[in-house]
């Protein structure tokens, strides 16, 4: 419920914060070990996203930093593909709200995604992170055409195995890549795919600012 509320963006922040607290309490009651830390890391980046779409970048950064700490805790207990993937996800979001951090740490997105793929070559969400770096990083560190090719390849696989939010990010980033290459008709189709998962444009619009 917490995750769906965050992406729907039709609830006031106080209620989102209450659901965040409930989600953390439930996680701490039901989970243990590395899975506990990993699930708490997801809670942190979701709460950070709630602040980011409201334009509160400094507040969002606090939660992304907590998410990074939790993901590292999980990996210290047991290295896992999903642990590295979630760490990379938190880092990518923190790069989005803190420019200086992004300039010196964006390489960690790709690094952790590749570690995730070493442990599980079929982790499509980790492959998405590799493509994200290609699409969003400036030349010569990025390559939009290569990133788009990777994204389209992922989209042609069994994406139903991905979490709903990961499919949303896949579609949104493919839209961004198309826009950067002036493929506006294709971009619109990917936008519609993303909006069919979460029909409010707030998150799509704030993340697409990476185009600028």
* Quaternary state of the chains: single chain
Name the structural class: mainly alpha
The CATH topology of the largest domain: Serine Threonine Protein Phosphatase 5, Tetratricopeptide repeat
Strand content: under 5%
The biggest sheet amounts to: none
| Gyration radius, in Å | 16 Å
H/E order of the elements? HHHHHHHHHHHH
How many domains? The number is: 2
Question: What is this entry, summarized?
Answer:
It is built from twelve helices and no strands. The chain has 212 residues and is mainly α. The chain has two domains: 1-120, Serine Threonine Protein Phosphatase 5, Tetratricopeptide repeat; 122-212.
Name a few traits of the molecule.
Serine Threonine Protein Phosphatase 5, Tetratricopeptide repeat, 12 helices, 212 residues, mainly alpha, single chain
């Amino acid at each position: 419920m917490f995750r769906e509320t965050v992406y729907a963006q039709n609830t006031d922040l106080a209620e989102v914060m209450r659901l965040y607290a409930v989600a953390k309490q439930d996680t701490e009651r039901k989970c243990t070990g590395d899975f506990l830390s990993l699930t708490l890391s997801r809670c942190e980046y979701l709460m950070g996203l709630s602040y980011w779409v409201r334009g509160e970048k400094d507040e969002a950064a606090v939660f992304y930093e907590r998410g990074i700490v939790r993901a590292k805790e999980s990996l210290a207990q047991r290295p896992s593909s999903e642990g590295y993937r979630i760490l990379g996800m938190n880092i990518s979001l923190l790069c989005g709200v803190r420019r200086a951090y992004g300039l010196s740490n964006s390489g960690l997105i790709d690094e952790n995604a590749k570690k995730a793929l070493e442990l599980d070559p079929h982790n499509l969400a980790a492959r998405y992170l590799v493509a994200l770096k290609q699409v969003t990083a400036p030349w010569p560190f990025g390559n939009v055409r290569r990133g788009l090719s990777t994204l389209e390849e992922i989209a042609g696989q069994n994406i139903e195995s991905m979490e709903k939010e990961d499919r949303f990010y896949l579609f949104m980033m493919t839209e961004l890549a198309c826009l950067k290459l002036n493929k506006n008709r294709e971009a619109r189709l990917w936008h519609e795919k993303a909006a069919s998962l979460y029909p409010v444009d707030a998150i799509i619009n704030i993340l697409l600012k990476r185009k600028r």
